[in-house]
TrEMBL record:
Residue span, SIS domain: 280-421, 452-590
GO MF terms, alphabetically ordered: carbohydrate derivative binding; glutamine-fructose-6-phosphate transaminase (isomerizing) activity
EC number(s) on file: 2.6.1.16
PROSITE patterns: GATASE_TYPE_2, SIS
Gene designation: glmS
Pfam families found in the cross-reference section: GATase_6, SIS
Location of this chain's protein in the cell: Cytoplasm
Name of this protein: Glutamine--fructose-6-phosphate aminotransferase [isomerizing]
Organism taxonomic ancestry: Bacteria, Bacillati, Bacillota, Bacilli, Candidatus Onthousia
Length: 600
């Protein structure tokens, strides 16, 4: 995902601020970087493909500037080259941009007829040229921005400097986040508060179709029509954006280990005063059906919620991959609530699906981890998981926080539609309050996970199987392993093996499973016996007693169905982690993956 930082100061060199800001956004993934700043009274642009360290090495160590803009780019239009990297400059205007200009080809044609030519293959250079076109026509920044916002179809957070107006930085926003950090004599704009947190904890948020003129004394925020807006000054909550790795070797391990706190933090306000607190959650009884939309791990959390809504509260729930949902006939109506789950709140397919539902005027709810994210702005109502910053690409604590939040939503719904009793709910609440004691022994069982990792890390194919809820959890277990260890791992419904997949089982093929449902366990165990008979090595997470079997067993305590997914997933996460550790992969930033997938 792209990252933006811009800074202007009365008395400081902003280059270190820009580079530090970019580094704090690095975890989101990028493939090139660049910076524009004032040197010898002219705008100097330095860009490079690859890591920020390449950019630092290319910068002259003696350069100093009081104004600058910088960017990390994740290639969308055009390859990850230094030519395509931002900033882009066209005559008077230099910009960095997050988002996608959907009508850039039409605008490019129009500008080419006006004798503009382009060096890069990016939509951003076209946006920059359009700004320059209007600026030359009107010689008025407000009018330029107004015409630009009218013309552009797509999303943007843009930071702009103008060669004959170098006392100001301009920022423009539509559907891509932008904040303006305020500190003494120095103001910093960025796409994420993590980029400004070292320098200030006070910031403004821009809404869509707003723009701002930022200089060393002042921030003037305006609507697209040029009206000056009075905005709330926000304060950063430091705990929730903790970017440090602590004493851990990887962010992923730190984030797995934090789950003893993040789960309870997420649900606490809904359970602290027992049953009454659950009434703070939205009333879902007015809807006939629940839809859930998400991608990857968020989609897997949705599957767990589907199981709980249907089995516990007798409420129909469909779960969709956002990349499919946006292009299919979804039979939506005003009686359907669509829930969008996303850690980042910036996933392109999830945003497009949300826009589709909104365009029809139907109700939406967000389950989001990152506040001020695009989805959190767009949904009718947003519930936040309080997992804190998730920096490792592989999602762990966000997933369990999503499950916990969805669980309390299901519980409140069950009370309202009278499918569950108060006593039942109180018992689940007690287990959530006791979550630290329930999961800490599982988090601490490093030797067991390491011993399993040693057995599987050289394998080429690993199968995850389960039934019911355990099947949905096996999907997440397989995803965790494949994305960070690069071992091919697939999840199958245990009952489906015989319909094809069992032909792939050979001597020593690892089959990892969970069996935590008294009604279905016997069936899963017989499927495990079938693969055992074909030579597979079996690893089983269970709350039952199968000590006499030739399986490697990971025992979890017997808990409510709402807590089970959390207990099952911890061994899955740690097996994946230690396997990747033995393989020596880049665990926090696996190849080809970005933390936020902001393109289709
Ligand atoms: C896997 C993973 C991804 C994300 C997916 C959705 O570990 O992290 O599958 O879950 O890209 O991202 P968000 O939740 O940000 O919408």
């Amino acid at each position: 995902m792209c990252g933006i930082v811009g800074a202007i100061s009365k008395d400081r060199n902003v280059l270190p601020i820009l580079i530090t800001g970019l580094k704090n956004l690095e975890y989101r993934g990028y493939d090139s970087a660049g910076v524009a700043y004032l040197k010898n009274k002219k705008i100097n642009i330095v860009k490079t493909s690859g890591k920020i360290i390449n950019l630092e090495n290319k910068l002259n160590k003696n350069d100093k500037s009081n104004i600058g803009i910088a960017h990390t780019r994740w290639a969308t239009h055009g390859k990850a080259t230094s030519i395509n990297a931002h900033p882009h400059s066209v005559k008077h205007i230099t910009i960095v941009h997050n988002g996608i200009i959907e009508n850039y080809e039409e605008i490019k044609d129009m500008l080419e007829k006006e004798n503009y030519s382009f060096k890069s293959s990016t939509d951003t250079e076209v946006a920059c040229a359009l700004l320059n076109y209007y600026y030359e026509e009107f010689r008025d920044v407000d009018r330029t921005i107004k015409e630009f916002m009218k013309k552009i179809i797509g999303s943007y957070a843009i930071v702009m400097i103008i060669d004959n107006d170098l006392d100001n930085i301009y920022v423009l926003k539509k559907e891509s986040p932008l904040v303006i950090g305020i500190s003494d004599n120095t103001n910093i704009v960025a796409s994420d508060i993590r980029a400004i947190v070292k320098y200030t904890n006070k910031y403004y948020i821009l809404n869509d179709f707003e723009y701002a003129k930022v200089n060393t004394n002042d921030v003037i925020i305006k609507s697209v029509n040029g009206d000056i807006l009075s905005k709330e000054l926000h304060t950063i909550n430091l705990e929730e954006i903790d970017n440090s790795k602590g004493h851990y070797k990887h962010y992923m391990l730190k984030e797995i280990m934090e789950q003893n706190k993040t789960i309870l933090r997420t649900v606490l306000s809904f359970i602290e005063d027992g049953i009454d607190s659950l009434s703070k959650l939205p009333d879902l009884t007015k809807y006939k059906e629940i839809y859930i939309v998400g991608c990857g791990t968020a989609y897997h959390a949705g599957l767990v919620a589907k199981y709980l809504f249907e089995e516990i509260t007798n409420t129909k729930c469909n779960v969709y991959l956002a990349s499919e949902f946006r292009y299919q006939n979804n039979f939506l109506s005003k009686d359907t609530l669509t829930i969008f789950i996303s850690q980042s709140g910036e996933t392109a397919d999830t945003i497009s699906s949300l826009k589709l539902v909104k365009s029809k005027g139907y109700p939406t709810l967000g389950i989001i981890n990152v506040d001020n994210s695009t989805i959190s702005y767009l949904v009718d109502k947003c519930l936040y998981t309080k997992a804190g910053s998730e920096i490792a690409v592989a999602s762990t604590k966000a997933y369990t926080a999503q499950i916990a939040l969805l669980s309390v939503l299901v519980l409140s719904h069950g009370l309202r539609n009278k499918t569950i009793s108060e006593d039942y709910v109180l018992k689940v609440i007690d287990q959530f309050k006791n979550i630290d004691n329930l999961i800490s022994p599982l988090l601490d069982d490093k030797d067991l996970y390491l011993s399993i990792a040693k057995k599987i890390y050289k394998e080429k194919d690993i199968f995850y199987i389960g039934r019911g809820l355990d099947y949905y959890l096996s999907m997440e277990g397989a995803l965790k392993l494949k994305e960070i260890s690069y071992i091919h791992s697939e999840a199958y419904s245990a009952g489906e093996l015989k319909h094809g997949t069992i032909s792939l089982i050979e001597k020593s093929t690892p089959v990892i499973s969970s069996a935590t449902n008294t009604k279905l366990n016997a069936k899963t165990i017989s499927n495990l016996e079938e693969v055992l008979a074909r030579g597979a090595d079996i690893y089983l997470i269970t709350d039952d007693n199968y000590k006499d079997k030739s399986f490697t067993i990971i025992n979890i305590p017997k808990v409510s169905i709402f807590i089970k997914p959390i207990l099952v997933i911890i061994p899955y996460q740690l097996i994946a982690y230690y396997t990747a550790l033995l393989k020596g992969t880049d665990i926090d930033k696996p190849k080809n993956l970005a933390k936020s997938v902001t393109v289709e």
